[in-house]
């Protein structure tokens, strides 16, 4: 019986290898970013060209030295191409979920640097419009990020700032607007980088203390899905 049960137990699907994963990421990115191929090719060829120039100028006819410079250029080009792919893939992935409720939560869950603490659950939600406000704490103080129309969420942000200042009057509070219909708002894929540019005002111990203090404020129940995982979302079929 035990042998039969072992044979009937389905095996877990084998995870794709690293090269296959990179190929899948490249295909996904190329589907939404038509320029990624040319940008990656440029990033790959420029270090090789630089390696060739350096090899001709500094090798003095030494074949081994020239080969080493060329190999270094190829490796550098491969690294640059991978970096470009990673950044363009992240941008393409977030572009797929932009406009969906919970998209900002996905950024806070997956893209924040270690110096920041944020939750994928919002601290305030408008059930009718699905506008939401998210909160993060870091070296730059408290950052409140709105998701939805800027004209509607400004009041929500002000209310949340009053709550924060009520318990932490000396901590700076910064607003970020993620409005998909406003070209001047912060794009979804730039939320983490924009937070990193906020002027530091707290040390690590103070960040922890502020984060723990703010948990006493609680958070609103979110009547919409939690943050969408941009790297697991299925691509939309072309019409």
From TrEMBL:
- Which key words tag this protein in UniProt? Membrane, Transmembrane, Transmembrane helix
Task: Cite a single Pfam family from the UniProt record.
Answer: DUF4191
Q: Which domain of life is it from?
A: Bacteria
Q: What is this protein called?
A: Membrane protein
InterPro entries in the record: DUF4191
Q: Which residues cross the membrane?
A: 36-58, 64-85
């Amino acid at each position: 019986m035990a042998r039969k049960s072992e044979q009937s137990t389905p095996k877990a699907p084998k995870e794709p290898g690293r090269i296959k994963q990179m190929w899948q990421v490249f295909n996904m990115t190329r589907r939404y970013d038509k320029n990624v191929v040319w940008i990656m090719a440029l990033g790959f060829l420029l270090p090789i060209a630089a390696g060739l120039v350096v090899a001709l100028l500094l090798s003095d006819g030494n074949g081994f030295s020239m080969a080493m410079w060329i190999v270094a250029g190829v490796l550098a080009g491969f690294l640059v191409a991978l970096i470009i792919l990673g950044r363009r893939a992240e941008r393409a992935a977030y572009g797929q979920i932009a406009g969906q409720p919970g998209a900002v939560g996905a950024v806070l869950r997956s893209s924040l640097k270690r110096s920041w603490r944020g939750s994928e659950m919002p601290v305030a939600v408008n059930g009718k419009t699905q506008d939401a406000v998210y909160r993060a704490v870091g070296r730059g103080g408290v950052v409140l990020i709105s998701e939805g129309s800027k004209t509607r969420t400004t009041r929500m942000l002000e209310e949340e700032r009053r709550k924060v200042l009520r318990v932490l009057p000396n901590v700076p509070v910064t607003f970020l607007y993620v409005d998909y219909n406003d070209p001047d708002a912060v794009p979804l894929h730039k939320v983490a980088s924009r937070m990193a540019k906020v002027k530091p005002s707290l040390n690590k111990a103070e960040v922890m203390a502020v984060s723990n203090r703010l948990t006493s404020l609680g958070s609103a129940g979110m009547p919409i899905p939690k943050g969408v995982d941009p790297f697991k979302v299925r691509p939309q079929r072309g019409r």
